[in-house]
Structures are given as C-alpha cells and as structure tokens.
C-alpha cells in the first residue's frame, strides 16, 4: 500500500469540531472590532522577502531563524508572511491609505514561522490584529487596549489574562540606554549564555527578555530603560497610564518588556496568561511611529497589536466552561413514507425562505423514524420536524421539541412562526 501523505509538521488541520469553536470566537472578535469602527484589510500571504527584513529587523528571532523563504521560478526571493503589520504598512503605502489620513484596520489569517512545534506554538498559526494609522496620542493606544479588554470580557476569560505595559521611548533614548546596558553586560560576561553574548552587540535589548534565570537575576542590577526615556515619550506613557486608570484597566509596568520586533517605539504591551504553560503571551503590540517612513512612505504615526488565535482558543477552552461553539443544526427534518422526501425538501426550502438564519438539515438516506431521531440528536438539533404520508396528504407537520419531548401537529404554513418561537425559547435557556 502507498505510504500516506501527512500534513507538514507544526501545521494543523482544523476539523468541524474545531471550526465550530473558531467561528464563534472569530464572530465575537469581529463584532467588537466593528463596534469601534475598524475595517478589514486582506493582503497576500506571500510578500517579497526584503519587506520583512526591513520591517522586522535583521537581528530578530523571526528574521534570523523563523522565516519560510524561498525563490520563485524567476529567482525572486519570497517569504510566507510571519506577521501582519509589515504587509498592512506595505499595502497602505502602495494604495495611498496612509498619508494625511486616519485608518483603523484589522486583519485575520495564517502566519508562518519555522519554530519548534509545541502546545501554543506552531509553524502555521493564525493571528487577528489591528493597526491604527495617523494618530499619535496615547488616547488611541488606550482605546486599543480597552478594545482587547472587551474581547476578554466577551469571551469569558477576563480573569485569566493580565496586562503588562512599558514604554521603550524614542530611537535616540533607546540608543543611549543601549550603550549603558552594553557597558553593564560587558562587566558581567561570565553570567551570560551564548545567545545573550551574541545579542549583546547585535541587539542588546533582547537580552532583557532572556529566559535564563541567572541572566534575569543579573538584570536586577542593570540600568533600567525607564531612566533613559525622552521627555515626550515619558509624557506619552504617563498619558496612557492615566487613561487606563480612568478606564479601570489594571496593568503592571514591566521595565523589561521590549518586544521581539525592531519596529516598535514608545508604547509596548502584552496580555499574558498563566493558564497555558510556557506559551503565555496571548496578545502583543505597541506603537511603531517610524515604520511607515522606513518602508518608503511619509512619516505616519501608527499603533497596533496581534493576537495568536490558537492560544486564544486554548485559553477559552481551558478556563470558560460555559463557552458554546456555533451550533451546526437547529432543526432536523425527518421524513418517512412514499413520496415524503420530496415534500420534506420543499418544506425545508420554504422555512429557509422564511428565516435565512435558520440552521436546518433534512434527513437523507432514509431509515425508520427511530434511526432518523437518533441522527437528529447526533447533529445536536433542538427541534425535529416530522413528516409521514398522512401529514403530507393533509399539509401538516409534527413539531417535536427535542429537549423536553413535547410535540404538536400543525398546518405547514404555521411551522415557520412556531419554530421561531421555540428556538427563541431554547436560546434563552
Ligand atoms: P513568543 O514570544 O511566544 O514567540 P512573539 O513575541 O514571537 O511570541 P508576536 O510576534 O508578537 O509573538 O506575535 C503575537 C502573538 O502571536 C503572540 O503573542 C502569540 O499569541 C502568537 N504567536 C506568535 N508566534 C506563534 C506561533 N509560532 N504559534 C502560535 N502562536 C504564535
Ligand atoms: Mg516568537
């Protein structure tokens, strides 16, 4: 027998039981985005490699070792997108959306990173993210964070995530902090591991989020970024903190939070959870006022975040037992007898005409009533419509509430209204 071909390691199939969960979650997330006036943008999943190198930075985990890069048939270097911000900025510049304008955008889709697959970390994963262009005040940073807080509330996970916040200041402030940090690290080289030693000169701020406990211990005595902030960045950050305080959003300032991508400045934040083991960052973002110009556009302030959907799904399932995936079937149509199948299909069509949101499945493949009721249960239907030869002859139908077993016989033209009332009732329970 031929050997089965399997999916690529770290890239998942999402089966109907999974997509029912994903759909409900995505619907909730999109509703909240819409309630703040955000519009969707869709960009290709492949871009020219230099876009990511320039945007994300050469000395970052993503660009150094995680990108799926290949030459196309013309020898042009392409990369499967590892994140969404660079593409949004590229598209915004290309279509003239950014200069002198305000944009509130969101995207959703697969991202690709060559990482070691484990729980909450995959090679193809999905992000939903938002990007705001043209606004520089801390008020929009605060509103973005408030929007994410609303997500947690509407998904029932608010008690399981906490907000970490920092300001990494301007490029110049970071440069002078960098010098101070390198000078400190040079005096303590013996504590640094290979990774940190390499980073110390290429991208020293990344040493701050080393997972090595000895390095973390050492950093307790290191200079702190907050002491090097420029006055404007400090004021911006104070403004953000005040707005979050006023909105009742709790946060901790984490001076070592610097984020892994080079384009950030000023505000950086992460929503983290302790409920998922090592992969604890659910949502992360910040301000990137320099990126549009860096990619060839006119200077445009910008702020955004991205959330990993796999981690969100894991979290919702781990901590919210009341979460309900989308239902596939509300009503199951049961038909038995000569010529009844055709009548059942016609009745089903009429009911879909009457209420396009109805989720209605007609039995196929025959079977006695008992077998068909068993299928109705298997699909999770709340109501069964039952047709036999006698009902068809009299233009009637039996409606059975599958939760309490009550049933009644109706004229077919009354079915739509009765169904609507029954489903509303069960939805309220
Ligand atoms: P981490 O520190 O976990 O590697 P990151 O800093 O690389 O995360 P970002 O680039 O900021 O992550 O991406 C934002 C979010 O996307 C993360 O917080 C996480 O939820 C999700 N994410 C990132 N990489 C992966 C991955 N390989 N698999 C699943 N989700 C991911
Ligand atoms: Mg990473």
Description:
The chain has 429 residues and is an alpha+beta fold. It folds into two domains: 16-169 and 229-319, 2-Layer Sandwich (BirA Bifunctional Protein, domain 2), CATH 3.30.930; 331-428, Rossmann fold (3-Layer(aba) Sandwich). Helix content is 39%, strand content 20%. The strands form three sheets. The protein has an eight-stranded mixed β-sheet. A five-stranded mixed β-sheet has the order 13-12-14-15-16, sandwiched between helices. Helix 12 links the parallel strand 12 and strand 13 (360-362). Helix 1 packs antiparallel against helix 5 (138-155) and helix 5 (138-155) runs parallel beside helix 9 (231-246). The relative contact order is 0.12. It catalyses: tRNA(His) + L-histidine + ATP = L-histidyl-tRNA(His) + AMP + diphosphate + H(+). Homodimer. It comes from Erwinia aeris. It is found in: Cytoplasm.
Itemize the secondary structure elements and their pairings.
Elements: H1 16-35, E1 39-40, E2 46-48, H2 49-56, H3 61-66, E3 68-71, E4 77-80, H4 85-94, E5 103-112, E6 124-133, H5 138-155, E7 162-167, H6 171-186, H7 194-202, H8 213-219, H9 231-246, E8 252-253, E9 265-272, E10 281-287, H10 291-294, E11 302-308, H11 309-319, E12 331-335, H12 340-354, E13 360-362, H13 369-378, E14 383-387, H14 389-393, E15 396-401, E16 407-411, H15 415-428
Parallel strand pairs: 1-5, 7-8, 12-13, 12-14
Antiparallel strand pairs: 2-4, 3-4, 5-6, 6-11, 7-9, 9-10, 10-11, 14-15, 15-16
Helix pairs in contact: 1-5, 5-9
Bound molecules: adenosine-5'-triphosphate (ATP) and magnesium ion (MG).
């Amino acid at each position: 027998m031929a050997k089965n071909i399997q999916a690529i390691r770290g890239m998942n199939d999402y089966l109907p039981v999974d997509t029912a969960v994903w759909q409900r979650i995505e619907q909730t997330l999109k509703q909240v985005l819409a309630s703040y006036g955000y519009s969707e943008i869709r960009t290709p999943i492949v871009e020219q490699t230099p876009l990511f190198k320039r945007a994300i930075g050469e000395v970052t985990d993503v660009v150094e070792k995680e990108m799926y890069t290949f030459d196309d048939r013309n020898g042009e270097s392409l990369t499967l997108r590892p994140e969404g911000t660079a593409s949004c900025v590229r598209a915004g510049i290309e279509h003239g959306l950014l200069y002198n304008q305000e944009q509130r955008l969101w995207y959703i889709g697969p991202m690709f990173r060559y990482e070691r697959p484990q729980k909450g970390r995959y090679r193809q994963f999905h992000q939903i993210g938002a990007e705001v262009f043209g606004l520089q005040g801390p008020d929009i940073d605060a509103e973005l964070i408030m929007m994410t807080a609303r997500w947690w509330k509407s998904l029932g996970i608010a008690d399981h995530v906490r907000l970490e916040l920092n300001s990494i200041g301007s490029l110049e402030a970071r440069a002078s902090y960098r010098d101070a940090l390198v000078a400190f690290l040079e005096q303590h080289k013996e504590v640094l591991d290979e990774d940190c030693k390499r980073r110390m000169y290429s991208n020293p701020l990344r040493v701050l989020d080393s997972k090595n406990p000895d390095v973390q211990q050492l950093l307790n005595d290191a200079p702190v970024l907050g002491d090097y902030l420029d006055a404007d960045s400090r004021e911006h950050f104070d403004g953000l903190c005040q707005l979050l305080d006023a909105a009742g959003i709790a946060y901790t300032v984490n001076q070592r939070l610097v984020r892994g991508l080079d384009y950030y400045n000023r505000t950086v934040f992460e929503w983290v959870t302790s409920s998922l083991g090592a992969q604890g960052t659910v949502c992360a973002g910040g301000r990137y006022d320099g990126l549009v110009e860096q990619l060839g556009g006119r200077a445009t302030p910008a702020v955004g975040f991205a959330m990993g959907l796999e981690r969100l799904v894991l979290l919702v399932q781990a901590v919210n037992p009341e979460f309900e995936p989308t239902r596939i079937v509300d009503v199951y149509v049961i038909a038995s007898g000569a010529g009844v199948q055709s009548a059942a299909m016609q009745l089903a069509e009429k009911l879909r005409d009457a209420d396009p949101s109805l989720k209605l499945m007609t039995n196929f493949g025959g079977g006695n009533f008992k077998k068909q009721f068993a299928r109705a249960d298997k699909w999770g239907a709340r109501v069964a419509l039952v047709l036999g030869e006698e009902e068809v002859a009299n233009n009637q139908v039996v409606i059975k509430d599958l939760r309490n077993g009550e049933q009644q016989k109706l004229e077919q033209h009354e079915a739509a209204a009765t169904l609507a009332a029954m489903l509303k009732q069960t939805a309220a329970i």
